[in-house]
Design brief:
By secondary structure, the chain is mostly helical. It has six helices and no strands. It has one domain. Helix 1 runs antiparallel to helix 4 and helix 2 runs parallel beside helix 4.
């Protein structure tokens, strides 16, 4: 349940970012798509709990970096916060999030979710992404 909540929070942030205008905001949105797709690919290839824990760590660090850049952009250029005209980016973000959520529900992931090390990694990922 916590993992689903985290995905919802990330989705809200990503869709909020698409409200940013300008090439910097579009670049950040494209970075988020790439990071999310890479995480989905990693989830689809998980064989061990260590694979899952590693994928979570990489995703958390990447998303934290992108989140910080988005916050800096909003602070340094409030004018950039205008509707993005590129609807294709919004569509790609939605697709990336859906694919990630599907990957998180696959048996190769679910079987590790009760493992204490995976639960700790999940909490660590949440803390990393949510910190300000």
């Amino acid at each position: 349940m916590k993992k689903i909540l985290l995905v919802v929070v990330i989705a809200v942030f990503i869709f909020g970012l698409t409200a940013c205008g300008g090439s910097n905001a579009e670049s950040l949105a494209n970075d988020m798509i790439k990071v999310t797709n890479n995480y989905t690919d990693a989830l689809n290839n998980v064989k061990t709990k260590e694979d899952l824990i590693s994928a979570m760590g990489v995703y958390a660090k990447s998303m934290t970096s992108i989140t910080k850049k988005g916050q800096e952009l909003a602070k340094s250029n409030p004018e950039a916060m205008k509707p993005m005209k590129n609807k294709e980016i919004s569509k790609k973000i939605g697709e990336a999030m859906q694919n990630m959520m599907k990957a998180q529900m696959k048996p190769n992931i679910i079987k590790f979710m009760a493992d204490p090390d995976v639960q700790k990694a999940t909490k660590d990922m949440q803390k990393e992404i949510m910190k300000k």
